[in-house]
Amino acid sequence: MSNSSEDESVSNADNEATRYIGTRATLELWVRSGGRCARCNTYLLEEPYFERPINLGERAHIAGWKGSGKSPRADSNVPVSERNEAENLILLCQPCHTTVDHPGTRDDYPEDLLLQMKKDHEERIFHLTGLEPDRETAVLRVFGSIRGSIPELSRQSALKAVYEGDGRYAKFPLAPDRHTIELNLGSLGDPEESGESYWRVGTTQIRKLAERISSFVHDKEVRHLSVFAFARIPFLILLGFELDDKVPIELYQKHRGDAEGWVWPEDGQPVGFEWELVREGTSDSKITLLMSLSGRVSLDDVPLHLSDTSVFEMRPINTTPNPNLFRSRATLDAFARCYQDFLSFLEDERSKTRSIHLMPAVPITAAIATGRHLMRHVQPEVVVYERLGAQFEPVIAINQE
Prior knowledge:
This protein is an alpha/beta fold. The protein is 29% helix and 21% strand. It has helices spanning 23-33, 94-101, 111-129, 155-166, 191-194, 196-218, 233-243, 329-349, 364-372; strands at 11-12, 17-18, 57-61, 89-93, 136-143, 169-171, 181-184, 225-230, 249-252, 273-279, 286-292, 310-316, 355-361, 381-388, 391-398.
């Protein structure tokens, strides 16, 4: 093992091995690594308990510094004379250095794995540090409990998603922990137990969050948003409406299966969408819209107090509604176009419509897009319903006069 000390030098007369790592190799390694651990991405030039930056980095050998004995990965084809060069070094924090070299764990970190780890990390640093300022994005996290579950979204997961998914670098300057702009709705409890107060309090919190973001946009602290959300669908529709088009937004969705994670897998053919009138009603002022995307919403789900409304259904074309429907940005874009076409239809053909009673079974990103593409004070009020128990009930109204 070698650490960050420049004056460490131990030679071996038999094989001319030395543990001394020169200034040139050290500088090259630090620059290529961006001052971060190649295994856990920890920043290696800071320490909150000291008045000035402290070097926390350690230069670990991939092929051990000598060709025999207990040196980790000593039986390498790399010539001993080249083992202190930057190509054979990986910058790590102390815990990660211990892990990759410890006798109990070093077998889990063979030479080829460490070389790939070094390559991936240094290529990412090279790409990110070459991005122009307009590729910056602020990360917005909104999360709550659904059936007792909250998906993982660490700082590293967000960095990975915006880099791999949109070629951007994440900015984290806005929350007290310097990680994200975020809203935790998990403390609201259960909507069936808390009743109306659950939705009222959550609505207030989302609107305050939107006001805060608006101030960041106004002050030019935020020029682009990457949105990661996991909460009740009515809250996400409201979130999309409150964010509207003040700032460019990229939406991310938690994917499962082979493409586990927040990066759009972009696999398969994009799905198209259509809408259809499934029941003509007598009311001119209100209509019902069923969104059957992640699951089916049927006429039987329409509450009795909407029995006089015309009912429309939006659904995927030639595809059964299912939770994994949205596998690409193209599918999300197709949904947005269909939804906007429907709103235009109401404006042209049913201009007396004053309220849309919306019963959604939709993925997270479709929910946010539903609110975001509603034109404020121009298009009808949207009353959003949630399935509570055996029936849909109205919980949030947006775009009210």
